[in-house]
């Protein structure tokens, strides 16, 4: 009797099977990455074609007094803005990442510690490469209220705060069982990222389009990190490390 052999599944069937084996969150993350890459490209194109010039100027001047371009708000508000902008600086984010990494390592989660540190450090490298690629000058419209160096696009503070706080927020959310606590962790991460970006425009060191591009690039990198973590977890490379992460925080 002749043995019947099954034909190889078509590419379409294999794609459907692959999609069916993944959670909705994974598919949404992939869609978010695609949308983020497109949005970053669109912003970059508009910036260097001059399409954002009018809106950039309007928004940055809206945070200054007409005539002398002094910052709006009393001195305590201005000092608060400087404190907030420091939350997106290399020193604060580096210390925060190192503290979390050491905590995870001491708690026996060395793989997760390496993953978190690797996500942030690699994001910093990408941020530096993007700045070097685009070489956009910083705003010359108003005086700077804080020290600023290197090129302007995308905003490094905005991008790195998005990467660091979203990665850590997702890690903390993953350790919680209650949906309310998960949502709170992610909302705090988003709020910190947004406040850092707004402070950069308020202090005069970035155009709003720099910040929008930084947020977008940072969110894309955070989503990529999340997908990598999911992949590693599926291979049980992070499963044991990630279980009950930060349970005692």
Q: What oligomeric assembly is this protein in? A: single chain
What is the C-alpha radius of gyration, as a whole number of Å?
A: 22 Å
Low-confidence regions: 1-6, 15-21, 241-249
Largest sheet: none
Alpha carbon gap, first and last residue: 66 Å
Number of domains: 1
Structural class by sheet pairing and helices: mainly alpha
- The percentage helix is 55-70%
Mean pLDDT: 84
Number of strands: 0
Question: Beta fraction of the residues?
Answer: under 5%
User: Count of DSSP helices?
Assistant: 10
- The arrangement of helices and strands along the chain is HHHHHHHHHH
Question: What coarse outline follows from CA principal-axis ratios?
Answer: globular
Protein model, in words:
With 249 residues, the chain is an all-alpha fold. It has one domain. The chain is 69% helix and 0% strand. It contains 10 helices and no strands. It has helices spanning 11-20, 24-49, 53-61, 75-86, 90-106, 110-134, 156-174, 179-202, 208-234, 239-242. Helix 2 (24-49) packs antiparallel against helix 9, helix 7 (156-174) runs parallel beside helix 9 (208-234) and helix 8 (179-202) packs antiparallel against helix 9. The protein is globular. The protein starts with 10 loop residues before the first helix and ends in a 7-residue tail after the last helix. Mean pLDDT is 84; it is low at 1-6, 15-21 and 241-249.
What's the structural blueprint in terms of helices and strands?
Blueprint: H1 11-20, H2 24-49, H3 53-61, H4 75-86, H5 90-106, H6 110-134, H7 156-174, H8 179-202, H9 208-234, H10 239-242
Helix pairs in contact: 2-9, 4-8, 5-6, 6-7, 6-9, 7-8, 7-9, 8-9
């Amino acid at each position: 009797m002749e043995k019947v052999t099954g034909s190889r599944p078509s590419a379409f069937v294999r794609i459907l099977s692959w999609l069916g084996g993944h959670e909705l969150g994974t598919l949404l993350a992939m869609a978010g990455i695609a949308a983020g890459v497109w949005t970053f490209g669109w912003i970059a194109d508009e910036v260097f074609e001059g399409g954002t010039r009018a809106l950039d100027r309007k928004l940055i001047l809206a945070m200054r007094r007409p005539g002398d371009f002094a910052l709006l708000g009393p001195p305590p508000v201005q000092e608060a803005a400087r404190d907030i902008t420091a939350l997106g600086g290399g020193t604060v984010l580096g210390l925060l990442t190192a503290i979390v990494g050491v905590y995870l390592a001491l708690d026996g989660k060395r793989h997760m510690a390496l993953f978190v540190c690797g996500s942030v450090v690699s994001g910093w490298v990408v941020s530096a490469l993007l700045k070097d690629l685009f070489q956009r000058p910083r705003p010359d419209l108003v005086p700077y209220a804080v020290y600023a160096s290197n090129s302007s696009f995308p905003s490094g503070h905005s991008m790195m705060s998005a990467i660091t706080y979203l990665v850590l927020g997702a890690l903390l959310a993953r350790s919680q069982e209650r949906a309310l606590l998960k949502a709170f962790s992610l909302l705090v991460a988003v709020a910190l990222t947004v406040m850092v970006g707004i402070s950069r425009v308020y202090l005069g060191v970035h155009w709003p389009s720099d910040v929008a591009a930084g947020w977008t690039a940072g969110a894309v990198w955070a989503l990529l990190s999340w997908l990598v973590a999911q992949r590693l977890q599926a291979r049980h490379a992070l499963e044991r490390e990630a279980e009950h992460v930060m349970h005692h925080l």
